[in-house]
Design brief:
With about 190 residues, the chain is α+β, with helices and mostly antiparallel strands. The chain folds into 2 domains: about 1-20 and about 170-190; about 25-130 and about 145-170, Immunoglobulin-like. It contains 2 helices and 13 strands. The radius of gyration is 19 Å and the shape is globular. The N and C termini lie close together (about 10 Å). InterPro entries: Kre9/Knh1-like_N. It comes from Mortierella polycephala.
Length: about 190
Amino acid sequence: MVKSTALLAFAASALASVASAKLLSYGEPIAATTWTAGKQESVAWSNDCSDFTGNTTLPITLNIQQNGLQVQVPGIGPIGTLDCKKPGSTKVTIPATVASGDAYSILVVNGEQSYSALFTIKSTVPAPSTSGATTAPATTTAAKTTTAAATTTAATKTTGSAPSASPSNGAGALKAGSTAALVVVAAAGLLL
């Protein structure tokens, strides 16, 4: 009985820590957003990171989806900063050297990896040309999304560390949900 109580307390503690991790919920950029290279653009978020300890002024990085994973755009440092103490907005500058594309996202790491939805950047710099289709590594828990570029079709699968093309910021939800499910299953198995 003591073992069961301790195990349930541990499982509840693990679930509480997962639930308290706050992903930023972006109002901008969203999937319908189109930014222009060389211009100032807006990043807006509707919640805070009050449970985050430490400095709440965090760098915003520009990422691009490659082979189903989000990677920081090579050669581009942070495009701005965001203070997540409270909901708000900030301006970021998109370098003129960023190529056109429809698989960009922003990332702010506030204890969790808070990705935005995928969005488009228009530029005078053409998107790099590739031949053939690119397929992301398969996962068993992710939904399949297809992104069509001007000359290339890329079939990708999103994971907890890569954002989907939906307007909500559910990028980390899969990670948190999977962790919570694993803790519950492990606790139930130990009770048997």
